[in-house]
């Protein structure tokens, strides 16, 4: 049986590994030398290195002890056999009798039937699976803890060197990392297409020195860096502006940072021969692999805390902060795990596109991206592990697809699509000053949604007749403290000036649910979408509501003012909110201030209950705007932030259209102006259906006005209504197929 290994043996092995990695040999020669070196150093008959050929397939790329003919021929799927299990779980497998182990797969071409003992450890770097390192012996024995540990240290060095391209070669499983084309399938955050170069919000920390000669110096470095880290976390925790959630995250940071076990394990890795940086990444990778196996969702969420803390420590050690000296490319596409609305606004319109690993369709960042008309893809898993600054990238926000380092054929096809879209936009631009009048003489008013001053230049260029929804909460979300009344009044005044006499409907503060102000105490609610939000917050905290109403009145001067309240679910809420407006109007007038020459007070219909409010409500409201996103989620009981269910239900579902038609009839009976605002209003087929059932005002993002207007101008609305009615009478669950078939016969 092999003797126990000493720290000096491990350091000697790593130094010999470094020498092999530093020579000018080709990638395959290096791998062959390494397997021979490891087998000899550990006293095993076999050492093999498997690397990923693609995300689901491992390939034997080098071996000492198995048949050489199997190299680049033997492959297995992720999870298949013992090697595949190690790769899938990111955890070692150590067995004295491999053939009897659950999941064992016999590969006759390798000649491994002679070997009983098996030890496999993952080659991984911060959650990125790169391959598997295996040793085998004829003697039926379990490998010792020291041997497992030594092999893990070696695997860490191999991971770093694989990351740096040390093994790139002609073999299929040896393609250089971060060089190959990669396709990511995510979700649409904002429609549109963009071609550009990657700009990482938090650049990857590159470890170029995985092996160190002087453990004592490296231990001093890691201790000093951890000390700096602890002080920085303690300083962050002492800030008075932290809310409950922020404190919880930072407390988790502090728990990790002050963990004696964390520092001790890194020091042990350094004693084996790793550099301080490599020791941090080894511990990060190992803890990641353990946490990913934990069924508790809360503990799995701590992965983000661990990653953030480890990355902070690596930046302290390497000096590779966010400011790496790299220059932002001319056509940057931001790539990040996630990003806040304030940070995204700082980049502004310089960005061509945004790609996030996380995010949601209703997130603050997505709202800002829509306001800035920047194509965005969310849920592009693991793209921050693969992308490097400057990589060419294509963002298809329409399909929720990202092409990283695309092949020429893909890039050409993408550019053709963009060119066709540009040509269509030219055609839409020619319709800018024409009304959205159908062939049978019905005119639909098209308005735009906005939330930032940056939106307003689109008002004139898009041909919108006004702003059907101005989201006032964005000015609250992107700040670290509550804005003052004077600041808001100045902003609202500039919005009205930019509208050049066109109407603007200001929606009062719509917070709660997925929109939480950074300086307000968050509410721990089991179902925030149906909880304390929007007008409910405003009525319970009337000081903020009154301050905003005062700012709107003062901003208007003598201009007309249109105010609508979000998430009204019953008549009493509207009456109370309307009363606040009237009292503030009276107060401003009594103070001698100029008040609007005309005032409209409306409500957003986002809950089915409001559709059944008394007639008095519809007669009192000056206008009603259907908030399609929320109304649809409550109608179908499908959370719009839940990707599993939100796409199951079609807006053109016959039941939903019948419900919308009921709202149209109630407003018509009371003479109340009605509009539909939301993402669906900007989709041409949906817009056609809304118009066909009687809606005459639609509000959408500026880029959608052209396509919607173009479709409306080429159809007969009465015929479209007949198609919808026929589909419903025949029991169709959705009228979409019938409308699409009919449109195909209409021509241009």
How would you portray this structure in words?
This protein has 748 residues and is an alpha/beta fold. It has 27 helices and 23 strands. The strands form three sheets. It has an eight-stranded mixed sheet with strand order 7-14-13-9-10-11-12-8. Strands 16-17-18-19-20-21-22-23 form an eight-stranded parallel barrel, surrounded by seven helices. Strands 3-2-1-6-5-4 form a six-stranded antiparallel sheet. α1 packs antiparallel against α2 and α24 packs across α25 (702-712). The longest helix is centred in the N-terminal third of the chain and has 23 residues, at 215-237. The N and C termini lie far apart (82 Å). Mean pLDDT is 85; it is low at 1-5.
Keywords:
748 residues; alpha/beta; 8-stranded mixed beta sheet; 8-stranded parallel β-barrel; 27 helices; 23 strands; 45% helix; elongated; disordered N terminus
């Amino acid at each position: 049986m092999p003797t126990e290994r000493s720290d000096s043996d491990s350091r000697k092995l790593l130094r010999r590994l470094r020498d092999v990695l530093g020579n000018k040999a080709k990638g395959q020669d290096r791998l062959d030398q390494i397997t021979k070196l490891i087998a000899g150093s550990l006293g095993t008959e076999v050492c093999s290195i498997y690397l990923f050929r693609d995300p689901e397939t491992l390939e034997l790329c080098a071996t000492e002890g198995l048949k050489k003919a199997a190299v680049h021929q033997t492959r297995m799927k992720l999870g298949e056999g013992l090697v595949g299990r190690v790769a899938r779980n990111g955890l070692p497998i150590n067995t004295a009798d491999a053939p009897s182990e659950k999941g064992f797969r016999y590969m006759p071409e390798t000649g491994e039937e002679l070997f009983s003992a098996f030890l496999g450890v993952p080659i991984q770097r911060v959650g990125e699976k790169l391959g598997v390192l295996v040793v085998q012996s004829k003697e039926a024995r379990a490998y010792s803890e020291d041997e497992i540990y030594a092999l893990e240290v070696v695997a860490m060095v191999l991971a770093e060197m694989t990351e740096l391209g040390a093994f790139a070669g002609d073999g299929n499983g040896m393609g250089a990392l971060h060089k190959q084309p990669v396709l990511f399938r995510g979700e649409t955050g904002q429609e549109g297409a963009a071609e550009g170069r990657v700009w990482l919000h938090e650049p990857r920390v590159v470890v170029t020195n995985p092996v160190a000669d002087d453990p004592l110096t490296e231990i001093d470095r890691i201790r000093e860096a951890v000390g700096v880290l602890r002080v920085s976390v303690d300083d962050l925790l002492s800030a008075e502006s932290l809310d409950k959630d922020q404190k919880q995250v930072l407390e988790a940071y502090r728990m990790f940072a002050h963990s004696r076990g964390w520092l001790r394990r890194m020091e042990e890795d350094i004693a084996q021969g790793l550099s301080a940086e490599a020791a941090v990444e080894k511990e990060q990778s190992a803890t990641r692999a353990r946490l990913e196996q934990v069924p508790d969702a809360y503990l799995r969420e701590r992965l983000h805390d661990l990653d953030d803390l480890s990355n902070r420590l690596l930046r302290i050690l390497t000096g590779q902060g966010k400011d790496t000296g790299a220059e932002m490319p001319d056509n940057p596409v931001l790539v990040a795990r996630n990003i806040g609305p304030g940070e995204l606004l700082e980049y502004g319109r310089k960005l061509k596109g945004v790609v996030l690993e996380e995010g949601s369709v209703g997130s603050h960042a997505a709202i800002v991206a829509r306001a800035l008309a920047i194509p965005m893809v969310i849920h592009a898993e693991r793209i921050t592990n693969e992308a490097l600054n400057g990589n060419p990238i294509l963002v298809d926000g329409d399909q929720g697809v990202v092409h990283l380092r695309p092949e020429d054929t893909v890039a050409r096809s993408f550019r053709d699509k963009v060119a066709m879209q540009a040509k269509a936009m030219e055609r839409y631009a020619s319709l800018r000053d024409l009304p959205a009048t159908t062939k049978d003489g019905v005119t639909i008013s098209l308005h735009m949604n906005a939330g930032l001053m940056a939106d307003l230049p689109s008002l004139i260029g898009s041909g919108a007749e006004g702003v059907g929804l101005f989201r006032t909460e964005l000015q609250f979300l992107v700040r670290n403290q509550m804005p003052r009344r004077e600041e808001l009044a100045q902003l609202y005044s500039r919005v009205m000036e930019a509208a050049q006499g066109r109407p603007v409907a200001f929606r009062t503060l719509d917070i709660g649910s997925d929109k939480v102000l950074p300086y307000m105490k968050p509410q721990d609610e089991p179902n925030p979408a149906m909880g304390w939000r929007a007008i409910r917050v405003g009525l319970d905290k009337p000081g903020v509501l009154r301050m905003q109403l005062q700012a709107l009145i003062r901003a208007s001067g003598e201009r007309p003012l249109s105010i609508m309240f979000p998430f009204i679910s019953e008549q009493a809420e509207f009456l109370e909110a309307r009363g606040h407006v009237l009292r503030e109007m009276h107060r401003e007038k009594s103070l001698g201030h100029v008040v609007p020459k005309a005032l409209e007070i409306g409500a957003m219909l986002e809950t089915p209950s409001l559709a059944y409010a008394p007639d008095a409500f519809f007669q009192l409201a000056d206008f009603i705007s259907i908030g399609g996103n929320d109304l649809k989620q409550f109608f179908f009981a499908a959370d719009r932030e839940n990707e599993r269910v939100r796409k199951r239900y079609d807006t053109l579902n016959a039941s939903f259209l019948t419900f919308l038609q009921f709202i149209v009839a109630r407003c018509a009976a009371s003479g109340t102006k009605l509009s539909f605002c939301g993402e669906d209003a900007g989709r041409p087929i949906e817009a056609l259906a809304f118009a066909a059932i009687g809606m005459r005002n639609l509000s959408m993002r500026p880029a959608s006005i052209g396509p919607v207007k173009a479709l409306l101008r080429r159809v007969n609305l009465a015929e479209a209504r007949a198609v919808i009615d026929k589909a419903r009478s025949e029991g169709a669950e959705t009228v979409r197929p019938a409308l699409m078939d009919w449109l195909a016969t209409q021509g241009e």
